[in-house]
Amino acid sequence: MTTVLWFRRDLRLSDHPALVAAVDEARAAGGEVVALFVVDPALWRGSGTPRLAYLARSLRALDEALGGRLVVRRGDPRSVVPRVAQEAEASAVHVTAATEPYGRRRDAEVADALGRAGRPLVGTGSPYAVAPGRLRTRGGTPFQVFTPFRSAWLDHGWHTPAPRPRSVPWASLPSDGPPEEPSTDVRLPPAGEAAARHRWSEFLADDLARYRTERDRPDLDTTSSVSVHLKYGELHPRTLLADLAAAPSGDSVATYRSELAWREFHADVLWHHPDATRRSLRTVVGEDAWVDGAAEQQALDTWAAGRTGYPLVDAGMRQLRAVGWMHNRVRMVVASFLVKDLHVRWQRGADHFMAWLVDGDVPQNQLNWQWVAGTGRDASPYFRVFNPVSQGERFDPDGTYVRRWVPELRGIPGAAVHRPWELLDAPDDYPAPVVDHAAERRATLEAFEAHRRA
To answer: Residue 102 is part of which domain span?
Structure first.
């Protein structure tokens, strides 16, 4: 009897519990496994070009790993998946359980359609070490604060990585072939499970020991940069956690593990609050605090183009346009600048990030924006306003990161690059600051205080 393994955010063959379940069921009946990926128009239309280009490359890598047996079909999964299951005369369709709002709705409808034909949709595992929604406080309520969530997450633990099945009997079915890679100027990282494992191995060997002290330094390039691989499931966080457990213990291991816990916390928040993709979980200022219309668009365009006159902000926005990625410290700075210096709603910035980020992931992107905006669960207080100059001087002390991405400033040595307007020979082709940070910070705090009193 044949089974179907429906790949989604799990484009790998190692540490893949749903694959193990599909293979075990097929082997017990002397059957085969259909490896299926559905190009869903609803998700394809809503994804930025850099993500689509990377996905196309990752699917090609998966197809190669499967010996050309990946079955790609285009269309609505609610009709495509049952049709493929019928075509293969499959006993069941196996998946890694979806956790995001759209995926949960889609899977419920696919399960209903399959059930009418007597075929179950079998969910095994999730994209996370601990499935969202599983952990609760002692009172039985969802966690609102990260630190107790992390404690519960660590106490709960996770399974060891699932073994990779050997000699999988992959079935052959007609395929539309991996989607064509859309054209993009963004310089994409290598895609696929092998590339992901190589990058993670490099980080473990070269940079993990320094992670705690250097993770906030965008000039040093010592972070793991595996967020895109986690997004597409080319790596599972359980694999990373197992490798961390085997590494020499120390502050850097604990710090990196904590960053993975933040990722799982945001997924848990979205599980309980699916409308958090667009709705602020807390209201921190009145509607009159935000710019609208042409003023909003002008502010957004200036920020997106990296022409604010604040070097660290501009470097981050230009890095995003060039490579579809941005260092996490810089993400916080540019997000704070848009929301609290330019007074643009966080949703507009989140949309721009999702259009350009290769690692654009709904729970991480939306909830991190809410963290900066002070509107999410256990968020940074709204009255915390990142100073783009002092952040640059602290985390890019010699200006290396800024000079890498802002060519107009490459002639300015050292930390002076963070204050080009103070130079007698300031570059003519670099803009003056679009706003006075001190003045906009006061306006932000006044709006926050006015709402609090109201």
So the answer is: 2-125
